[in-house]
Amino acid sequence: MTYIVYDLEMTVRRKKGQIAEIIEIGAAKIGLVDGVPGILDTFQAFVRPTVVPTLSTDTTAFTGITQDDVDAASRLPEALSAFVSWIGSDEYYLCAWGPDDLRQLLQECRQMQIDTKWMINHNNLQKMLSKVFKLEKHQQMGLKAALEMLEIPFSGSHHRALDDALNTAQVLVKLYDRLSFRRNKPAEEPQTESEVVYKTGHFENLPFAALSGLFPPDSDQ
Q1: What is the DSSP secondary-structure string of 48-96?
Q2: Any idea where the Exonuclease domain is (predicted)?
Q3: Which end of the chain is more exposed for a tag (fewer CB within 10 A), N or C?
């Protein structure tokens, strides 16, 4: 059994009705070596958006991903094909921090008629950590706060897919003996899209919370 910890970066959506598209996939593969969990391999790919091909200045400021990065990239079907090939044939759990990456992935795959059968055994590590530490249901801890609590130093750049996946993987490795993973199928997961709301705070269950610091409160963008 392997554990695939992945993270997605999307174009920034600041208003209801705007389109968010995946522009980067990052992942870390975790396995047991002599009974000890560790990171075995990594995956990273930029994705070329198709609905709105030009990145906004907000997206580049938030992620650091440039227009040149995505212009040279494959579209989502090809990027996911490479990702699934990298995952390999061993049995696996898919893991992400929070529910939003899975929602976005399922939404875009269904819109583009991309096979979702590989999206099995999906586990929300943010929710699992909350259960381990008996947090209230509304107190979903952000990744940065979780790393600080577990005394794991953050490495890389925040809001870059591979770096966030690697940091999330460190949480899984640290809590491995305390986590209970579940098996499931994509059809069992929520299909609704969460709203993008800007909010700061130690605990967060809202996507793109860090955007609140990028724009002035009275901005009409």
Answers
A1: --SSS-SPPHHHHHHH---HHHHHTSBPHHHHHHHHHHHH-SS-EEEEE
A2: 2-181
A3: C
pLDDT at residue 140, rounded to an integer:
82
Spatial CB neighbours of 199, under 8 Å, sequence gap ≥ 6 = 206, 209, 212
What one-letter code names the amino acid at 155? Answer: S
Tokens 């002035």 found at:
216
Note whether 154 and 205 are within 8 A (CB): no
* Six-digit token string for 167: 């940091």
pLDDT bracket for residue 15 (50, 70, 90): confident
C-alpha–C-alpha distance, residues 148 and 136, integer Å: 19
Joined tokens for residue 66: 């440039």
Give me the helix-helix angle, 161-175 and 125-132, nearest 10°: 30
Q: Tell me, what DSSP letter sits at residue 107?
A: H
The tens digit of pLDDT for each residue in 204-215 reads 333 444 444 444
